[in-house]
Task: structure prediction
Amino acid sequence: MCYLCNYTKILKAAGMEITQTRKRVLELVGQSKEPISAQEICDAMQMPPKVHRATVFRALESLVTAGVLERIASADHRGVFYDLAPNQHHKPRPYFYCRYCNQLKTVTEGELQINVPQLMGHFKGHVEQIQVQVIGICPSCMTRIE
Result:
């Protein structure tokens, strides 16, 4: 959840036209504690004023293309989630995907240490994005399975 980001400034810095839909989508993603699915965004956008599902998907695609949001596909390709792209307030972060409940959670700092500059130094080309995803079964699902 981000209270530090100015979403209007983020859109302007990305050279994007500031539309009500883009700003609402960006706010929903930024205010979510965890990466959020397109379905969750569409559900939230049904509050007045309602926004058509196709409009939400076009907004998501334009925000990803502009580098404002990250699209995170689950390793088993059963889910797609959106999170704020790394910026001055957000470092790249790893995720945990539960293959049982299909939820994607942010791994808190300290649980998994990743040296991004060192990792980027190993590649000769231009690194556009780094995504680290741990896959398994979350503690809630483990209690239901046992």
Q: What stands out?
A: DSSP finds six helices and six strands in the chain.
